[in-house]
Amino acid sequence: MIIDVIPVGPIQCNCVILGDAATREALVIDPGEEPETILDALARHHLEVKAIILTHAHLDHIGAVAPVREALGVDVFLHPDDQPLYDMKQAQAEWLGCAPPPDTPITARLADNQAISLGENMGKIIHTPGHSPGGVCLYFESVTIEEAEGTWTGAKAGLSSAAGLPLQRHPLLICGDVLFMGSIGRTDLWGGSYEQLMQSIRERLLILPDETLIIPGHGPVTILKDEKEHNPYLQ
């Protein structure tokens, strides 16, 4: 697996590029801003994108969807419970004090336990409402990390920095704004619920293997075991 974690935009959303090293198939997850940066990374890795996946529809995660989709000509996947949030880009932009992004349609739906394939890597969608009604995570039970770039500071349990990453297998979770290193997603935005978020984390994420590598929607990569032991919201 080729993994590039690219912080984009003023809020530094982690746009995640996942690529299969053998087939060069790729997914772009949460293209929040800076479409040229995202497209340049795809070209640098010689990847061919098969889909854009949105973990949720907050503006900082969807700002570059239109230009990236136009350049790549692929489907955009979103859980239907977040479609109303996606459709209120104007209201979100007014709240943030910025211009709304160009519009482009959602062309495919995500569902809980939906299978996601990337070359030989098989993953699934985990519906994790709370930060937003249709928030999802993408989980791969086991991947071999061959190349990695981006905000990897803090990942432990045998995983080194991007330079000299060991070729070893890890469960992998891309979790949007559900869980962060030392924190959790906010729940005071449209459709948010603290109780629902904590239920999602405890019932859907904390049951995953301790060695699961977590790429959150903002900030550094972490390991589930570390969050179980040190994240104050999980104690």
UniProtKB/TrEMBL annotation:
Keyword Metal-binding carried by entry: yes
InterPro entries the UniProt entry points to: MBL_Glyoxalase_II, Metallo-B-lactamas, RibonucZ/Hydroxyglut_hydro
Molecular-function GO term, any one: hydrolase activity
Annotated ranges, domain Metallo-beta-lactamase: 12-218
Any one Pfam family match given in the protein's UniProt record, by short name: Lactamase_B
Domain of life where this protein originates: Bacteria
Cofactors demanded by this protein: Zn(2+)
The keyword Methyltransferase belongs to this UniProt entry's keyword annotation: no
Keywords associated with the record: Hydrolase, Metal-binding, Zinc
Name of the protein: MBL fold metallo-hydrolase
Source organism: Eiseniibacteriota bacterium
